[in-house]
Design brief:
Aminopeptidase; N-acetyltransferase domain-containing protein; 13 strands
């Protein structure tokens, strides 16, 4: 069966709001804390769509496409050119990313998801994307289509919603300016492990200098907690508990109660295949981040972990985390 796919227009917004709201509610059923619905979810979806389809002042290139059958919209797919973080080389330019706020109607004909993904890949390639990434929330049928089209897991987003009230472990303290050199040293170890896992994470030649600037800047931001273990001259590890961003959550979801753990490293995780010391130090830092979120009134933690970092996944799962979203790369 052939599927007609075209670029979305402002006239499609009412139908797209319905589709994306239904999609968000399905995620909410999976985990009502992590995927909390915004009180004004329909209005937030409409606002985001209107901006994406009309504004000429876009922070990045995004594409919305819809599938049709007999004049009725049966699905929607959202993609974008993903800016490369400053610490990475990005030798092949900004990747193209298919976002998880893509959906099909319950009565969509068979093959609709595949047709939408195919159309998104063509559109991203036409913009110059040389690397294609995809993302989906676990439990959704998009996984099979991405696997069939040659995508392999690249990054896992694991979540936990039982953060407790134990407080920050005594061996973990808030970071100061004197800790930045030690954080940068440990972060370099982290980045080297990332590159060994997958060359996708090739470092920029000025990675350390750029990361130093970002860490000094982060110390001034009041929306996050930077924490470390050990003395500044011999730092054992670091973790930054920061707020969630819209890159991982659709406008339908309220992200004020969710924190993200991304900048995070301890030598227990140095070997990506074998966890050292039962992950005691790494888990202590993790609990410190959870305590920081709990103190800010957050109910969910979202931990970022490369799919090939088996020791880190083992530690996170032992700490009660489960995979909630997967980013994959087309090989």
């Amino acid at each position: 069966m052939s599927h007609a796919v075209r670029i979305a227009s402002t006239g499609d917004i009412p139908r797209l709001v319905d589709l994306l709201l239904l999609d968000a509610k399905e995620r909410h059923v999976i985990d009502p804390i992590l995927w909390k619905m915004a009180a004004d979810a329909p209005a937030q979806i409409e606002k985001a769509l209107a901006f994406a389809l009309t504004s000429e002042q876009q922070p990045f290139r995004q594409i919305w496409q819809v599938s049709e059958r007999n004049g009725a919209i049966t699905g929607v797919i959202h993609s974008m050119r993903l800016p490369v973080p400053p610490i990475y080389a990005g030798g092949q330019g900004d990747p193209g990313l298919i976002l998880p706020d893509s959906a099909v109607s319950p009565d969509a004909p068979e093959g609709t998801v595949d047709a939408l993904v195919s159309a998104a890949e063509r559109a991203l390639t036409e913009t110059g994307a040389k690397i294609l990434l995809s993302s989906y929330v676990t439990g959704e049928p998009w996984r099979d289509v991405f696997q069939d089209r040659g995508y392999d897991p690249l990054t896992l987003y694991l979540s936990r919603t039982d953060l407790g009230d134990a407080g920050r472990p005594q061996t973990v303290r808030l970071a100061t300016e004197s800790d930045v050199p030690g954080i940068v040293t440990r972060a370099a170890e982290n980045k080297q492990t990332l590159f060994e896992i997958d060359p996708f994470w090739e470092q920029h030649s000025d990675a350390d200098a750029r990361f130093t600037g970002w860490m000094n800047r982060s110390l001034t931001l009041r929306d996050r907690d930077m924490m470390v273990m050990g003395a500044p001259e011999n730092l054992n590890g670091y973790v930054i508990a920061q707020p969630a961003s819209r890159l991982h959550f659709s406008p339908a979801h309220d992200i004020t109660g969710t924190g993200v753990i991304d900048d995070y490293y301890h030598p227990d995780l140095a070997d990506p295949t074998v966890l050292a010391n039962d992950g005691e130090g790494a888990t202590t830092l993790l609990r410190a981040a959870e305590a920081a979120f709990a103190e800010r009134g957050m109910g969910a933690a979202f931990a970022v972990c490369p799919a090939g970092w088996r020791s880190k996944i083992e530690m996170l799962e032992a700490a009660g985390y489960k995979t909630a979203m997967v980013w994959s790369i087309k090989r």
